[in-house]
């Protein structure tokens, strides 16, 4: 989401709302005064004309303006071994006018937008908007859009700035814990008041380092308090935050940083620093790089938190909108305490953190829920016969009872209450969800089978649906208002349009509301494609509403496979059906665009390296158990492929044949398939940060294998066949 202008983020924060003391810098060097009262000290001197130009002969240590970036720490933040500055050679910093201080908090620099300044208001590269706030979208970082006000409901409420939201949270939750980071085996916590103060310190530090209004602050690191503080600090200082995935290459980092005209880039550690150093000479707007990878040496005294405060675990990439909305903004609005998982969370340590924290709410992408399901099934296979029988009984009771709850029948039979005592509570405790009352999934499609598995264990997983371009969720499922396979109903203040529906009511899903983004930064053509002349955001997803108003996603326009015969085929339902029919299959990708028949790439479940995330050759415990049930002695993926293990290949063919029997037409049947040597992964580039399949990457990587499917002039008849 690095290039989307978030709804409301592009607006200027008014001076009266933002300026702590109107130009008096808050004391960020060690005293306890409130930054909102305009107090100052020698370390917290006012930003005024005459200070050194931000970027003039930049010093090797740029962290000195950002002391106490984290609670309890007085160490300076390092910026690498050498000076990262580019001498200004006597030039004024862009955006300065009449000797005014650059970017003084709450005071826009005179001359911006006049056409004479070299600051963000300059119209040299882009055409200025026709009039302020008259357009439904903008691609300019200093642009304005028309607010989508409504006569009633949430859309009629007065707009609220980030600072207003934060101030309200501090007034409500001042002494509640907000953020919790594990350092040296102990949880170091910040209250909401501390959190607020640190964000203002960061904002002042960014200004000191040369951040100009409407310029970006790139953030390159795993989920942490520093990430949150840098994000909010950038906004409070008049810039905007741009998340950069830690898996990005130097070139990918360069694209994001250049597009947002980043003045400052914040990195987590030496590894990420090296990426920026490699491209620093090609970033003309860059003035400072800040590294924050030090350990916290002191802890604040523990404070009493309220008894029913929500607690969540932050582990999804913060460069993604799902994590930002849940972990930063919703948490701030509701006074939630956020615990940060370890960087290897998605490689296996997440459940350990969940067991330790015991969150009250949890958002898991589908792959996380699937991994939990696989692990639980693997453990269950090793249980005694009696335990397996009890578990099967409890799952049957749980599924039926919860399905009835979907229809409004809320009574709980005696056998359900007994199963809760014998099974459900133990399962929840084992995965750290015994206190969790809100379990959600989003960011990618999830199978009905996975939803039913958790529902049978009395863990209803509710679906959310939205986009980065809609500031996160647009529809939501609720405990007593959900249907399996549905993304729920539209949120209050949001509106949905099914564009050009077919006879079955399926069409493109379009969004409207104040949550819709302003536009893509510096990408007018792409913005025009996304937002139509009536202000509707086109999602690219296909879906329909049922008679009760629940939204169902049926596919994605760009993912549709259009066969040589002209039939449109959504791949996900077929892929999910194959994975469910053959439990040893980890990933499946359907191919056959413009071809006479469909084929499929398959991978097997294997052990993943906990440090690198690279899939190995050893079969996973669940895959081993599958092989043993079939009489196969294989223990490695390579053994199955090299010998074309008869038992395994036969099982895969039977599973695909069973799926084909349910196909609505011959064109939707899988005719050929192949087993790949390596599973898809983040490491290999086949999966994105939310574990969503990157189809173009896979198609390019295995283009030769795909071509082999279609070397024959006619598709095979009868049973599907495997390619070597």
From TrEMBL:
One Pfam match: AMP-binding_C_3
Catalytic reaction list: a long-chain fatty acid + ATP + CoA = a long-chain fatty acyl-CoA + AMP + diphosphate
An MF annotation (GO) of this entry: ATP binding
Presence of the UniProt keyword Metal-binding in the record: no
Disordered: region residues: 1-64, 84-140
Residue stretches of biased makeup (Polar residues): 29-46, 125-138
The enzyme's E.C. designation: 6.2.1.3
SUPFAM superfamilies referenced in this protein's UniProt entry, alphabetically: Acetyl-CoA synthetase-like (SSF56801)
CDD domains: ACSBG_like (cd05933)
Entry superkingdom: Eukaryota
InterPro entries: AMP-dep_synth/lig_dom, ANL_N_sf
Record-annotated AMP-dependent synthetase/ligase domain positions: 166-300, 307-521
Keyword entries, A-Z: ATP-binding, Cytoplasm, Fatty acid metabolism, Ligase, Lipid metabolism, Nucleotide-binding
GO cellular component annotations of the record: endoplasmic reticulum; membrane
Name of the featured protein: long-chain-fatty-acid--CoA ligase
Provenance organism: Zonotrichia albicollis
């Amino acid at each position: 989401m690095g290039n989307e202008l978030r709804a409301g983020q592009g607006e200027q924060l008014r001076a009266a709302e933002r300026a702590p003391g109107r130009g008096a810098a808050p004391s960020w060097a060690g005293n306890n005064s409130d930054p909102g009262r305009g107090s100052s000290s020698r370390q917290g001197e006012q930003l005024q004309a005459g200070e050194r130009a931000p970027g003039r002969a930049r010093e090797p240590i740029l962290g000195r303006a950002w002391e106490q970036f984290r609670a309890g720490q007085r160490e300076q933040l390092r910026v690498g071994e050498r000076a990262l500055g580019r001498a200004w050679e006597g030039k004024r910093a862009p955006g300065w006018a009449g000797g005014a201080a650059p970017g003084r908090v709450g005071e826009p620099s005179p001359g911006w937008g006049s056409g004479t300044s070299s600051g963000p208001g300059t119209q040299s590269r882009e055409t200025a908007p026709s009039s302020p706030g008259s357009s439904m979208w903008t691609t300019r970082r200093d642009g304005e859009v028309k607010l989508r006000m409504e006569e009633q409901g949430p859309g009629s409420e007065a707009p609220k700035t980030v600072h207003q939201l934060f101030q309200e949270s501090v007034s409500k939750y001042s002494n509640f814990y907000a953020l919790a980071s594990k350092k040296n085996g102990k949880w170091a916590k910040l209250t909401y008041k501390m959190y607020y103060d640190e964000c203002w310190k960061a904002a002042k530090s960014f200004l000191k380092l040369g951040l100009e209004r409407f310029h970006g602050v790139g953030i390159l690191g795993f989920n942490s308090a520093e990430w949150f503080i840098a994000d909010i600090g950038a906004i409070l200082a008049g810039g905007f935050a741009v998340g950069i995935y830690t898996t990005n290459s130097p070139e990918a980092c360069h694209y994001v940083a250049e597009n947002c005209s980043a003045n400052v880039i914040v990195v987590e550690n030496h590894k990420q620093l090296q990426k920026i150093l490699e491209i620093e000479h090609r970033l003309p707007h860059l003035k400072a790089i800040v590294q924050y990878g030090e350990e916290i040496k002191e802890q604040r005294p523990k404070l009493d938190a309220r008894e029913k405060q929500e607690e969540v675990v932050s582990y999804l990439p913060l460069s993604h909108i799902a994590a930002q909305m849940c972990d930063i903004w919703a948490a701030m609005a509701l006074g939630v305490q956020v615990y940060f998982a370890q960087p290897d969370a998605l490689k296996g340590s997440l459940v350990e953190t969940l067991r330790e924290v015991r969150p009250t709410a949890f958002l898991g992408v589908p792959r996380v829920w699937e991994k939990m399901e696989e692990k639980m099934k693997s453990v269950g296979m090793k249980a005694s016969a009696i335990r397996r029988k009890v578990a099967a009984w409890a799952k049957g009771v749980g599924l039926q009872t919860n399905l009835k709850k979907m229809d409004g029948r809320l009574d709980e039979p005696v056998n359900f209450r007994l199963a809760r005592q014998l099974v459900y509570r133990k399962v929840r405790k084992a995965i750290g969800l015994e206190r969790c009352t809100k379990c959600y999934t989003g960011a990618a499609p999830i199978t009905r089978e996975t939803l039913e598995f958790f529902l049978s264990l009395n863990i209803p997983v509710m679906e959310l649906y939205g986009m980065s371009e809609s500031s996160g969720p647009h529809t939501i499922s609720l405990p007593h208002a959900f249907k399996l396979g549905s993304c729920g109903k539209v949120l209050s203040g949001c509106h949905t349009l099914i564009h050009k529906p077919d006879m079955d009511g399926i069409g493109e899903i379009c969004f409207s509301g104040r949550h819709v983004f302003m536009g893509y930064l510096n990408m007018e053509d792409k913005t025009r494609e996304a937002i139509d002349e009536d202000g509707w955001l086109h999602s690219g997803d296909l879906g329909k509403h049922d008679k009760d108003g629940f939204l169902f996603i049926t596919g994605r326009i760009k993912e549709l496979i259009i066969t040589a015969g002209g039939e449109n085929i959504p791949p996900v339902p077929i892929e999910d059906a194959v994975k469910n029919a053959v439990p040893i299959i980890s990933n499946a990708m359907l191919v056959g665009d413009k071809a006479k028949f469909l084929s499929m790439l398959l991978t097997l479940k294997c052990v993943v390296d906990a440090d690198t995330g690279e899939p190995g050759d050893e079969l996973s415990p669940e895959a081993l158990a599958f092989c043993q049930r079939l009489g196969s002695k294989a223990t490695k993926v390579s053994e199955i492929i090299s010998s074309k293990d008869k038992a395994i290949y036969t099982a895969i063919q039977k599973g695909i044949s069973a799926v084909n029997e349910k196909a609505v037409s011959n064109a939707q049947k899988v005719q050929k398939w192949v087993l790949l040597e390596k599973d898809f992964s983040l490491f290999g580039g086949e999966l994105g940060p939310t574990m969503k399949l990157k189809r173009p990457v896979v198609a390019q990587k295995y283009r030769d294998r795909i071509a082999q499917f279609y070397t024959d002039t006619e598709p095979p008849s009868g049973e599907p066949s495997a390619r070597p």
